[in-house]
Design a protein that fits this description.
The protein has helices at about 5-30, 35-45, 50-60, 130-135, 150-160, 175-180, 225-230, 240-260, 265, 270-275, 285-295, 335-345, 350-355, 370-380, 410-420; strands at about 65-70, 80-90, 100-105, 110-115, 120-125, 165-170, 185-190, 195-200, 210-215, 215-220, 280, 305-310, 315, 330, 360, 385-390, 400, 420-425, 440-445. It is of the alpha/beta class and about 450 residues long. It has 3 domains: about 5-50, no CATH class; about 50-345, Aminopeptidase (3-Layer(aba) Sandwich); about 350-445, Alpha-Beta Plaits (2-Layer Sandwich). Helix 1 crosses helix 10 (about 270-275), helix 6 crosses helix 7 (about 225-230) and helix 6 runs antiparallel to helix 10. The longest helix is centred in the N-terminal third of the chain and has 30 residues, at about 5-30. The chain is globular and about 65 Å long.
Length: about 450
């Protein structure tokens, strides 16, 4: 039997066994991945073997980074400005499950925008990079073609974060709205009540404001409500920050994943794929998606790291009179501090497994709350750290292991992070005042001197 006749026979079998349901899934996958049913069947037959992920990145324990971009699409003002940006990072391990992090990037971050050739093509909010690619072809892919937006946005993100972006998925608001409806809505536990009086109600020409509100507690949201919950930027009760917004978006992502992978969600799969259809752009193949799914399917959701770059850690809000819109800027204009954080976002599982007692002291002499800031940063990475406040100024950062050998791996990780040696001292005597057993990190005047190249940072 010829190859073509074999493929046709497979299509017939799928149609007979799965009926309309089976064919709708195949047809839906074809639309999402911009291919045809025959190609989809070939991918399903090959499985992950058709992707380089398993044989290259997983086999070599090479980190995988996938960028997600959400934008308005046709009928919205600024159709391709990415209102939501998130990076899913996966670190495979030869033994044990991979580590996974969800990293939210604020749309209002003012940055230099570089293309894949390393050329600066613009300066502005990071959310315009995707639009620059789609409309102007700045990413090296001609304007209007598939992957044009992702090519530009991936290059801009990679330059800022210091990590390669391997794959991207672009999703417009129509796909998000209809996709949530297709799976019967999602259940969200809203942490606090809030009202947003400046939610943009957009059409093709203008975006007048309307007022939206949410009550605290468990709520079942349809697509339109979930989109409002994800996009709200001016809510009261602490919900008007980029930090809160990124938390809500990560919360929605988790809820959608749980719904789709539930027993009932499988039956909604054809409708979900129909909703996504031509409203998704990606450089991933179906083989790549299957390889990623097989890699992360056993990961405990509670172990996923949730991080947001925002004004609580590496960025600060625009506070000068001539700002006409909301902007965020990096404290470190070289971006080396953020690069270092992103490159070291996964601690060795063994060091975290010690459940170490780590205290952070501020000996920087700057009075800018460095110890509290770094407690929050390391807390996002899974460390249990304690803010021990200000101490006398010291010139260089120190990492002191006074655990008696019980937390050596943790001490080594913090020392490697700050680029300093470990100083080992005996544990305090029982009943002695001062620091308890464990690891002490004393932030010096250099603070992040091992990886920050901007002498004015933090001054």
């Amino acid at each position: 039997m010829t190859t073509r006749r074999t493929v046709v026979a497979v299509v017939v079998v799928v149609a007979l066994v799965g009926g309309v349901f089976g064919y709708r899934i195949l047809d839906g996958l074809a639309h999402v991945f911009h291919t045809n049913v025959v190609s989809v069947i070939g991918s399903l037959v090959r499985g992950e073997n058709g992707s380089t992920i398993q044989n290259n990145q997983v086999a070599n324990e090479q980190r995988i980074n996938i960028a997600l971009y959400g934008y308005g699409g046709a009928g919205h003002d600024g159709a391709y400005l990415s209102d939501s940006i998130m990076v899913i990072s996966i670190q495979p391990h030869a033994t044990g499950p991979p580590q996974v992090a969800e990293i939210s990037i604020p749309r209002d971050w003012d940055v230099p925008i570089y293309n894949a050739a390393g050329k600066k093509v613009d300066q502005g909010k990071i959310n315009q990079a995707y639009s620059d690619g789609v409309l102007d072809g700045d990413g090296g892919v001609p304007a209007g073609q598939e992957d044009a937006g992702g090519a530009m946005a991936d290059a801009a993100l990679s330059h800022l974060l210091g990590i390669p972006i391997d794959y991207f998925v672009g999703l417009d608001f129509t796909a998000f709205d209809q996709g949530v409806d297709a799976v019967g809505g999602i259940d969200i536990n809203v942490p606090v009540s809030f009202v947003d009086p400046q939610y943009p109600s957009c059409d093709a020409d203008t975006c007048p404001y309307e007022t939206i509100s949410f009550k605290a507690g468990e709520q079942h949201m349809n697509g339109a409500t979930a989109l409002e919950y994800a996009r709200s930027r001016h809510g009261g009760n602490g919900q008007g920050t980029d930090f809160a917004r990124s938390q809500r978006q990560q919360q929605i992502l988790t809820a959608i994943k749980q719904k789709v992978l539930s027993v009932g969600g499988i039956g909604d799969l054809p409708s979900l794929l129909d909703a996504l259809g031509g409203n998704v752009d990606t450089n991933m193949t179906l083989d790549d998606v299957e390889a990623i799914y097989n890699l992360v399917k056993g990961v405990n959701s509670a172990a996923i790291i949730h991080v947001g770059l925002d004004a609580t850690n590496f960025l600060y809000e625009c506070n000068v009179p001539d700002c006409s819109a909301d902007y965020l800027y990096a404290y470190d204009g070289t971006y080396a501090t953020i690069d270092h954080f992103m490159q070291n976002i996964f601690a060795l599982p063994g060091s975290l497994g010690e459940d170490p007692n780590v205290g952070i002291e501020d000996g920087s002499g700057k009075g800018n709350g460095a110890s509290g800031r770094w407690v929050a940063i390391f807390g996002d990475l899974g460390w249990s750290t304690q803010d021990l406040g200000r101490v006398p100024t010291t010139s260089g950062t120190e990492v002191i292991d006074q655990s008696g050998g019980t937390e050596t791996a943790a001490a080594k990780w913090f020392a490697a992070y700050f680029g300093v040696p470990v100083t080992t001292v005996p544990p305090p005597s029982p009943g002695a005042t001062g620091s308890a057993d464990g690891v002490i990190v004393i932030l010096g005047q250099d603070e992040e001197g091992a990886f920050n190249h901007d002498p004015g940072y933090g001054s």
